[in-house]
């Protein structure tokens, strides 16, 4: 993503005006404004509540969610830095805020960073999101891995997080005292710290052309009645890069959900990408959800093509087909559903501009 530096000197001067001269003389401060807008025209069939009817619509965030944000850093003594990120997601088709109407729904955190890593506090992406974007064959477009399991791109309120990068090794861990503060009495409840609790950890390692990822994510229910209901995700994946060609494969085991603690489900995926030219890339993936002891399985096929017009603007065309078995209700779009057992096809073409 392209970032544009604000008037750093003016920001630093303002900080000095409200702080101490000695501190300002010893520190370097920067604040960056950044963002992107992603909007397309989408076709979906079987989009009605009873599985009938098609829809043509403007659709936001088809490759990456539209956003704007502020990112800042202050250099402190001994290689230590104070950092912050305030990132607001929005729906570019309507102008409304995303992530449940939050002002800074994508990220809002402050922390300390050194050669040993970053410790951050606030609303943050989970460890699955940290690690699995490169492992999705279509790179987290709305038709890919997220259509099978949206938790791979979720966030947590009230979170403390550690991220460390040591050469080819990345380590990350997160604890949230309540991952969804919009639910009344669903987080940070006195006397019951398990309500809305989330724990995550993961690692990635690269050896030459091969990359490997391993992660764990656990969430509890957001009420006193469901706090003992736990959903656990164990996920792993491989990434192979050789020149313009990339291949990926992954697996996730889901043990229970908040609503159905006895559920067990496997998710497998495989795919890859090829850069035909520096400006044109094609990605494709196949994803399968297999629910244990249940006929409600699903398989989806996704294709994503992008053509870069400049460093900041690209055009894209994405397509997907979701094949639902039994009473499965997965739609092709991230978070979307269809009538039980109904298949769905989606196609979207659009433009993305980064600033």
TrEMBL record:
GO molecular function, one term: porin activity
Membrane topology: Multi-pass membrane protein
Keyword Protein biosynthesis: no
InterPro entries hit by this protein: Gram-neg_bact_OMP (IPR050298), Gram_neg_porin_domain (IPR033900), Porin_dom_sf (IPR023614)
Compartments, record wording: Cell outer membrane
Main location group: membrane
Assembly and interaction partners: Homotrimer.
UniProt-recorded name of the protein: Porin
């Amino acid at each position: 993503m392209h970032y544009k530096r604000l008037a750093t000197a003016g920001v630093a001067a303002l900080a000095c005006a409200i702080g101490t001269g000695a501190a300002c003389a010893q520190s370097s401060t920067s604040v960056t404004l950044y963002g992107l807008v992603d909007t397309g025209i989408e076709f979906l069939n079987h989009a009605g509540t009873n599985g009938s009817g098609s829809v043509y619509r403007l659709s936001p965030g088809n490759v990456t969610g539209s956003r704007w944000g502020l990112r800042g850093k202050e250099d402190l003594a001994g290689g230590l830095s104070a950092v912050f990120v305030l990132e607001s997601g929005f729906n570019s088709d309507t102008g409304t805020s995303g992530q449940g109407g939050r002002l800074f729904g994508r990220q809002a955190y402050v922390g300390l960073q050194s050669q040993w890593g970053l410790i951050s506090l606030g609303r943050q992406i989970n460890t699955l999101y940290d690690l699995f974007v490169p492992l999705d064959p279509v790179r987290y477009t709305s038709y890919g891995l997220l259509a099978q399991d949206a938790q791979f791109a979720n966030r947590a309120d009230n979170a403390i997080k550690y991220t460390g990068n040591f050469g080819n090794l990345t380590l990350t861990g997160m604890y949230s005292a309540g991952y969804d503060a919009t639910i009344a009495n669903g987080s940070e409840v006195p006397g019951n710290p398990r309500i809305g609790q989330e724990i995550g950890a993961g690692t990635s390692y690269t050896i030459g052309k091969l990359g490997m990822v391993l992660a764990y994510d656990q969430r509890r229910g957001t009420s006193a009645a469901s706090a003992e209901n736990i959903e656990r995700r164990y996920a792993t994946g491989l990434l192979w890069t050789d020149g313009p060609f990339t291949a990926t494969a992954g697996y996730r085991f889901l043990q229970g959900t908040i609503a159905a603690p006895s559920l067990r489900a496997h998710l497998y995926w495989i795919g890859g990408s090829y850069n035909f030219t520096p400006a044109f890339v094609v990605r494709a993936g196949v994803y399968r959800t297999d629910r244990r002891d249940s006929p409600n399985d699903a398989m989806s096929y996704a294709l994503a093509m992008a053509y870069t017009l400049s460093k900041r603007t690209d055009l894209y065309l994405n397509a997907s087909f979701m094949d639902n078995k039994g009473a499965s209700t997965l739609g092709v779009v991230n978070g979307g559903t269809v009538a039980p057992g109904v298949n769905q096809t989606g196609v979207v073409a659009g433009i993305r501009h980064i600033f």
